[in-house]
Amino acid sequence: MLDANLKQDASEYCDEEAASVEGIESVEALATSYIPWNIKLVKAHKAWAKGYDGTGVKVAVLDTGIDYNHEDLCVYGGVDFSNSGDYMDYNGHGTHCAGIIAAREYRKKIVGVAPRAKLYAVKVLDNDGSGYTSDIIAGMEWCIDNGIQVASMSLGGPQGPSVAYNNAISKCQLNGVIVVVASGNSGHTKYFPWVCSPANSIQAKTWSASPIAVGAVDKRNRIAYFSSRGHKYLPWNPVGCVAPGVDVNSTSPGNKYEEMSGTSMACPHVAGLAALLCQRWNSSDVYKIKKQLLLGTYYSHKYPTSMDKGFGLINCDRVVSTYYVNMYFDSLAEWSLLA
């Protein structure tokens, strides 16, 4: 188990490491180093060049834990709700998602969307990758109590909308925690629930209460065959946007790296973008950041997107550069009028 002293030492190391690369030097280093295809596709490197790299933003990964000893990850703390005894990742899923959010480019193999964000491991799934709704909700409560600004949740199942999940996610976002979730890997089945739980919702989609459900695309921005789609006639159950989710290379336990596919890989890209916006405005205003993220994504495309992709492929550069919050749309449901 990682005891309190080791956690403190890890946090101090991360702070010292971040301090050594602050300012223009860190932006230039990131901007001129090797940039993976997925980072180029979402244009995160262009946001870094403008000074937005997630510095200081607290991002929690609700998953199988994180390998806090990985050379490319700085984990500032965490908690275990899976009865595993520690928030170390012995599965690999959580560590992979964490790297997509905030890998530090230690050996120029990969880099995350928000490489200077502060990672927190909230272990709600056991070493086999399974867990209980009650543990996931406890993890969300922990995020509220510990000042987390963005919660990345690459988990779920083929259930319909859950009152328990819905209430917990709403509570998170009403308390300043932006919740980003994977849409699911059920593909274009056209069968209920289309988008998997907890990405779906029993509420009408609003800018403040509901989560951002993320679908997956490949290197050519083509929707992945497995990516769960939204439904044209149920505006409470759409995909919010899409991000890379096919053969994405990221961190793996034991200082390793591996490629994985799934909407689980797409979700942390958007969590990273949310972290960039939190830094951009020095704020965790959920209404403001979600509206900016989704409308900025939509208006970065030359042609209208499809229901399968929601507002479309995220564009970190456009979203941090142009102000969209004052646009009229009051409800996420209204986006269907744009498609």
UniProtKB/TrEMBL annotation:
Pfam families: Peptidase_S8
GO molecular function: metal ion binding; serine-type endopeptidase activity
UniProt KW Metal-binding keyword: yes
The keyword Cell membrane is annotated on this UniProt entry: no
UniProt KW keywords: Hydrolase, Metal-binding, Protease, Serine protease
Catalytic residues in the record: 63 (charge relay system), 93 (charge relay system), 264 (charge relay system)
SUPFAM superfamilies reported in the protein's UniProt record: Subtilisin-like
One of the protein's GO biological processes: proteolysis
Domain of life, source organism: Bacteria
Family, similarity comment: Belongs to the peptidase S8 family.
The name this protein goes by in its record: Bacteriocin
Organism: Prevotella intermedia ZT
Classification of source organism: Bacteria, Pseudomonadati, Bacteroidota, Bacteroidia, Bacteroidales
